[in-house]
Amino acid sequence: MSPILEVKNLRTVFKTESGNVTAVDGVSYHVNEQEIVGVVGESGSGKSVTQLSVMQLIPNPPGRIEGGEAWFEGKNLLEYERNGKEMRAVRGAKISMIFQEPMTSLNPVLTIGQQLMETLQLHKGMSTAQAHKRAIELLAMVGIPAPESRVNDYPHQFSGGMRQRAMIAMGLSCEPRLIIADEPTTALDVTTQAVLLELMRNLVRRLNTSLLLVTHNLGVVARYCDRVYVMYAGRIVEEGPTREIFANPRHPYTVGLLKSMPRLDQPRQHRLLPIEGLPPNLVNLPPHCAFLPRCPYGTELCSTSPAPGLAAVGAQHAAACHLNIEESRT
After folding, report:
1. For strand 36-40 and strand 3-16, is the pairing parallel, antiparallel, or unpaired?
2. DSSP of 183-223, one letter per residue?
3. How far is CA 223 from CA 66, 134, 217, 219, in A?
4. How many other CB atoms sit within 10 Å of the CB of residue 41?
5. pLDDT-derived band of residue 28, with 50, 70 and 90 as boundaries?
6. Percent above pLDDT 70 for the chain
7. 240 CB burial (10 A radius; 0-12, 13-18, 19+)
8. Sign of the Cα pseudo-torsion (41, 44, 47, 50, in order)
9. Contact criterion met (CB below 8 Å) for 103 and 184
10. SS3 state of residue 229
11. CB under 8 Å to 126, separation ≥6 — which residues?
């Protein structure tokens, strides 16, 4: 499969009173056609900022994309003017983004139908009547009951799950080639989460599009994603096929995440093991591996050597850890 999106050495920095925060530090990844890819990590690891950087939605100031490339359909998106015609033509029409909290993304003074119609008229050139008809079809597609009447409702008249369905409908409205879903089920109950994730997977398959799923929920990744990238302190520390990562994690951070996750194949009395400590301060990142203060496997090499880059540990599997490098030498 060929990549539909390929990001290379992306670097995003925020200027703060305490100093410069490198939120994304040399991140490279790709998404293939008709593939579901997961990006996981703790809050503050750089998952969302990476995707906002690709879409050129980082507020400037204080944020700034300092380097990197984001190749989509043969063009580097980061060469486009942030609010220029070319970038606006990509957002929504070719790459859509479903944001984390729909109540902060939906306009409270416009009806759901008006917000759906605006995208269709802007990117598809539809008339008002055509856009209204399509908006009803989209709401029906995502399981909104009585879409003919609910299309005239305002966001506050929808429940949390229905608002997220409306956001999914907006993301799919122009049939984009890639959908970026930034923790789309946050603050929803587990039943609604499962329904929405199944809905997204089925729609992605039906429309032959690709999905990049940003989440901290490893259970979601295990069920829905083909490949996964694990992020820590603004860097990718492990990548590979989902089955391989879960069966054979090779970075201590990934091991820690998996040990802290409840599993049905473990006995009931099995204790979850949290990752000790806190993520590092991104203003003063150490020259060595950022995970070292929390790592139970750290050695002298880890504290005296620069932070390692990703190294192959298997077929399509790579991890950024000195332990893997030492194993390959012996």
Report:
1. unpaired
2. STTTTS-HHHHHHHHHHHHHHHHHHT-EEEEE-S-HHHHHH
3. 35, 31, 10, 6
4. 24
5. very high
6. 98
7. buried
8. negative
9. no
10. strand
11. 117, 120, 134
> Per DSSP, which regions of 17-123 are E strands?
19-32, 36-40, 63-72, 75-76, 95-98
Helix (H, G, I), strand (E, B) or coil at 78: helix
Show Cβ contacts of residue 305 under 8 Å, excluding neighbours closer than 6 positions: 288, 322
Q: How far apart are CA 27 and CA 235, in angstroms?
A: 6
Q: Are 174 and 124 in contact (CB under 8 A)?
A: yes
Q: Which of 250, 256, 252 is nearest to 273 (CA)?
A: 256
φ, ψ dihedrals at 45, nearest 5°: -80, -10
CA distance 24 to 53: 9
What is the rounded CA–CA span in Å between residue 305 and residue 323? 12
CA 87 – CA 56 distance, rounded (Å): 8
d(CA 210, CA 98): 13
Give tens-digit pLDDT for 193-242: 888 888 888 888 888 899 999 998 888 899 999 999 999 999 999 999 99
Query: In whole angstroms, how far apart are CA 286 and each of 192, 282, 294, 304?
Result: 41, 9, 13, 11
Mean pLDDT for the chain overall: 90
**Measured CA distances, 187 to 172, 190, 195, 197, 231 (Å):** 22, 9, 14, 14, 22
Count helices and strands in the chain by DSSP H and E runs: 13, 12
Query: What are the C-alpha distances in Å from 62 to residues 41, 234, 239, 274?
Result: 23, 17, 30, 33
